[in-house]
Amino acid sequence: MTPEPSADTHPLDQHRDPSEAARVRGMAAEVAARFGGDLARMRRANGYSNATWVGDGIAVRVAHTPVGMAREAALVRALPRGIGHPEILGEGTIEGHGWIVTREVRGQNLHEAWPTLTAAEQRHAIRRLWARVHLAHDASPSLRTYVAAHGGFIPAALGDAAAAADRAAAALGLSGPRRSRLHAVVEGYFRAAPLVEQCVNHGDLALMNALWDGEVTAVLDFEFAVLGPVEIDLCRLVCEARVSDDGRRVDSEAGAAALEIAARHMHPVHGPALIHGAAILDQLRDLDIWLAQDSPDERAEDWRPSRLLTALLDADGGYLAPLLG
């Protein structure tokens, strides 16, 4: 049984084993000290799969699980400068847990800044976020050796995706027609994906993975970079701009900008199937994470990924509706 978190547990660790969270913090303190930092003077930054602290001129990321970061570090060092990723000062492992230290750069996490931005600033931020990450798409010929064709929310094979769909259908009690539609959309993605150009996607294109300083100054955390259709990044961009933190659709200038970008960059034939399938796969991955937390305080159907998944299965296609008609 996982121990109950204490009152001083950081919100990002509330669903983690407190002893494991403390262990990762100890690793981060050790790494920070190597680069002249003191974790006690650094602040915890957003992020789920890695624990991140920023301050003392550096940013330290440590994987929560025993996975390496050498591949991500190699990719980051090869990225076009225009993406703005902070300079990597070092990377390595402690007891199998990968870590990366980058130079601290000026800026606020875009997700944290978002509620304070004007409508025009939000629209500009979405456009600039896409412009920066699109540099990676364009540089795919030189970057593709650093990434795999699966990872993040993109499973290795249709069978893995179908199994995730079955888990979601069971957890949410989906009706027969909705279960069939779920499998049809997933299968449609896997049919279409090999037929289009494969590019290097960020794979987790979220507001929290960008910095804002009156401008989008950097795109961060390429740990889920994946080779595949550009619709992988497009579906996340549209979701970030058109869906609130609690999973409700938002009509805004930023959302309109994201839809315009998606319509321009989607494949003219296979784009709807790919962006719809990628969005479904995204929510299936998130739903698996939520199911593993096994929170008794909410019904599964009320979770954010559940709301988004069921809306994507509606006849209009949820937040992707303007792109699927």
TrEMBL record:
GO MF annotations in UniProt: transferase activity
Domain Aminoglycoside phosphotransferase residues, every copy = 45-259
InterPro entries linked: AGP_Transferase, Aminoglycoside_PTrfase, Kinase-like_dom_sf
The yes or no answer to whether the keyword Transferase is present is: yes
Alphabetized UniProt keyword annotations: Transferase
PANTHER family for this protein = AMINOGLYCOSIDE PHOSPHOTRANSFERASE-RELATED-RELATED (PTHR21310)
Record-given protein name: Phosphotransferase
**What is the source species?**
Streptomyces violaceoruber
Q: What is the lineage of its organism?
A: Bacteria, Bacillati, Actinomycetota, Actinomycetes, Kitasatosporales
